[in-house]
Write a structure and sequence with these properties.
Layout lengths: L2 H12 L21 E5 L2 E4 L4 E4 L14 H11 L10 H13 L5 E5 L2 H16 L3 E5 L17 H4 L10 H4 L2 E4 L4 H10 L4 E6 L15 H12 L2 E5 L11 H6 L5 E5 L9 E5 L1 H4 L18 H17 L2 H21 L8 E2 L2 E2 L11 H5 L3 H13 L2 E2 L8 E2 L6 H16 L2
Parallel strand pairs: 3-13, 5-6, 5-7, 7-8, 8-9
Antiparallel strand pairs: 1-2, 2-3, 4-10, 9-10, 11-12, 12-14
The structure holds pyridoxal-5'-phosphate.
Pyridoxal-5'-phosphate binds next to α4.
Length: 425
């Protein structure tokens, strides 16, 4: 047994499944997970001293790579002033100014501690504001482990084949209408069947938790129009895409503005953070101004704010998006060429530093298409890559990420390993 296996055996005795978040357990790719001892730049070092090129980037947040010196410095500076105040602090104002400045639809913003809290609060706020109770979500979209959103959810919930979690009362789930992504006609008919009852439509504008899926032309515009016509709150869950697809997320790239936006991941610079924001009249429904309650002992935590501000400032100063897209294209076209060479059907949707590998003949437009792809082939490729120092996400239904710490030669090196893997399918 190596060190990782020993740690996993120990962990399983005292932590359910040995992990603190289910996808980390490698259930869908088989084998035991490696334990990470150190993360630096584009690489992870395992407990057994193996170096891996990392395409998971802590599931999105590490857009600057691991342990970026400017973020580390910001955290260590903040450490000297105390780790939690329980009163408002100056960094919270700076963070709010940055978010309002960068995200087109956000006029006011509140900090919380995770993406899950952000989407949960958006839903409550939309219900409080509209006085309606139903919500619409899309199959395969993952919005954290919020009760009413864990219905036909993506990410870990999908990987384990039980999209509907136990412990969620049927009466809660009944308030959630689940529709296929990329089809406007089903949204229209759901709204007419539930006239004046739907508070919000929540969507990952570019779904990234059942692989990476892009909207068809006009789809997001259509959702915006339908929401406006029916006085339904449009919520963009940009926890994954925010500050990654562009500084202002998908809403900046597409010019489509939601009413509320959930944020997280990158805005914490590697520390636990979430945020949600939107139009002032809706946000002012929150306590202490309005009747919708939402709170957090550690919300706006000074260490998390320092890390997040440093992360956002780095993005503003260096505008790395063209470089990230170059690397993304190098990877996606490279792997597509390899697949063609071995006549293995492969789809590689990619925007900037996000992409995924679907072993499928046809383009993937929704969850059903994603599930029809060949997950066994992914599993096979994953294992060979891992043995050769390349860490892809441990599930066929997750998105790959690149950071600014990745170099062209890392991608070239990874493609060589992928070629080896494809030749062995
Ligand atoms: C990761 C993620 C969440 C949940 O964020 P946590 O910080 O894990 O609670 C919500 N929505 C999307 C789109 C995500 O990718």
């Amino acid at each position: 047994m190596n060190k990782s296996q020993e740690l996993f055996e120990k962990a399983k005795k005292i932590i359910p499944g040995g992990v603190n978040s289910p996808v980390r357990a490698f259930r869908s790719v088989g084998g035991t997970p490696f334990f990470t001892k150190k993360a630096l730049g584009a690489k992870l070092t395992t407990a057994d001293e193996t170096e891996l090129i990392d395409y998971v980037c802590t599931w999105g947040p590490a857009i600057h790579g691991h342990d970026h010196p400017q973020i580390r410095e910001a955290i260590s500076k903040a450490l000297h002033h105390g780790t939690s105040f329980g009163t408002p602090g100056p960094d919270e104002v700076e963070m709010a100014e940055l978010l309002v400045d960068l995200v087109p639809s956000v006029e006011k913003v509140r900090m919380c501690n995770s993406g899950t809290e952000a989407t949960m609060s958006c839903i409550r706020l939309a219900r409080g504001f509209t006085g309606r109770s139903k919500i619409i979500k899309f199959a395969g979209c993952y919005h954290g482990h919020v009760d009413s959103l864990l219905v036909k959810a993506g990410s870990g919930a999908l990987t384990f084949g039980n999209p509907d979690s136990a412990g969620i009362p049927e009466s809660f789930a009944r308030e959630t209408i689940v529709l296929p992504y990329n089809d406007l006609s089903v949204v229209k008919s759901a709204l007419s069947q539930n006239d004046n009852q739907v508070a919000a439509i929540i969507v990952e504008p570019y779904p990234a938790n059942c692989g990476f899926i892009l909207p068809k032309d006009g789809y997001l515009e259509g959702l915006r129009k339908i929401c406006s016509e029916n006085k339904v709150i449009l919520i963009f869950d940009e926890v994954m895409t925010g500050f990654r697809i562009s500084l202002g997320g998908v809403q900046q790239r597409t010019g489509i503005t939601p009413d509320l936006t959930a944020m997280g991941k990158i805005i914490g610079g590697g520390l636990p953070v979430g945020a949600f924001g939107g139009k002032s009249d809706i946000m002012d429904y929150l306590a202490p101004l309005g009747p919708v309650y939402q709170a957090g002992t550690l919300s706006g935590n000074p260490l998390a704010m320092a890390a997040g501000i440093a992360s956002l400032k780095l993005l503003k100063e260096s505008t790395p998006y063209d470089f990230l897209d170059e690397l993304g294209k190098q990877f996606s076209t490279g792997v597509k060429n390899i697949a063609d060479q071995y006549s293995i059907p492969l789809q590689v949707p990619q925007v900037g530093s996000m992409f995924s590998l679907f072993f499928s003949e046809k383009p993937v437009h929704n969850l059903e298409d994603a599930l029809a792809s060949n997950a066994d082939q992914f599993k096979h490729i994953f294992q060979i890559c891992l043995k050769n120092g390349v860490y892809l996400p441990p599930s066929a239904y997750e998105t790959c990420f690149i950071s600014t710490a990745h170099e062209k030669k890392d991608i070239t090196n990874s493609l060589e390993k992928l070629e080896k893997a494809f030749s062995a399918i």
